[in-house]
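Let's practice the habit of predicting before peeking. Look at the sequence and jot down your guess about where helices and strands might fall. Then scroll down.
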Amino acid sequence: MKTMTSRERVRLALNHQETDRVPVDFGASRVTGIAAIAYRNLLRHLGLEEDIRVYDVKQQLAEPSLAIIDRLGGDVVQLHRLGPTTAMPFLEIDRWKPGCLTDGSPCFVPAALAEERRPDGTLEIVRNGELYAWRTPQSFYFDVCYAPLARAETEADIDAFVWPDPWTEREEQYLRERVQALYQRTDKALFAGLPMLVCSFLEISLVLFGFENFMMLLASDRDLVEYWLDAKLEHDKAILEKYLAIAGPHIEAIQMNDDLGTQDSLQVSPQLYREVFKPRQRQWIEFVKARTHAKVFLHCDGAVEQIIPDFIEIGIDVLNPLQTSARGMAPRLIKAKYGRDLAFWGGGVETQTTLPFGSLEDIRREVRERLRLLGPGGGYVFATIHNIQPDIPRRRSWQSLIRCRNQGRTPDILQNQPLK
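Done guessing? Here is the structure:
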């Protein structure tokens, strides 16, 4: 088989066709990313130096350079909105300033980031006197505490909510420039990495109302919840109309984001999902598919096997992260049962266990097995299960990850039949 471009490889794989090798995503989304500290450690392992840009401040994710993506065999690059950090779209990534990672090492951060330090060392992100997020000295991440709808009780309260992510001429210019840089000047597949403010229903509601508040409203005031979700859908459509007018012809996949699962079960019952969230997801997907050929990629952590048929029914094309440690999500089972209708993006190695704690051979064995289980017949993009975390300090782990990511290049991996 002839060597393919990255764009060809991803497009064919997502259409369930064989490719010259399994396509690889290295850090090309907020859910297949790499923590900035881990990225710095990777650079040191490779003997390289780069400016590290933290584009997602909440998760402390680094934007990998094209040079590193190429070095690791990556096929995908991310096409952001201007403000990609959850609930903090004012952290726009077209302007940067010097900053520090959570361990004090230097990086660049969005120019609008304003941090205040408490006496105990906790950092707060504050804007116009409003506290948005905080991070204790022991934490690797910021916790969002901005819940502007926490006291919403009526439809009038929903109507009064001012969306914090309006479309602007500045964002339009940014997006056009990024499309030009990434689509016209590389052969990479473009991934539309949307922030939750425009691609989520349950998860963003838990943020904006507060987790407990929204769960209580689901039980006590269904009418208000549905009024809110309809308003959310209309907001998303207005933004997506603008975004897809520019990006639509150039992207291979577009992100939805709703963590409906936990490690062992669903966050909401199947009935509640089908009555409340599924109809809005369906409308979102129909709107998107009328404007782009891109596949709809759903990031949904946890034990969600029970509602995968619903995902397929409403037009979801790709499931991520394929959290194989969750109940009922064994890769052999999921591929066999749903692989004709869904592509899988992720599932390559456990970031909860194997990658941080496994031996070199453990990591190699797991990745080789996942390639054999998920790769044949297409329908698979290799990535770690969610983001690579900061606690990947061992040289041999990085060495192993680099080797394993390149296993997809080896013909015998792709020619092997699924493990028996």
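How did you do? The first helix runs from residue 6 to 14.
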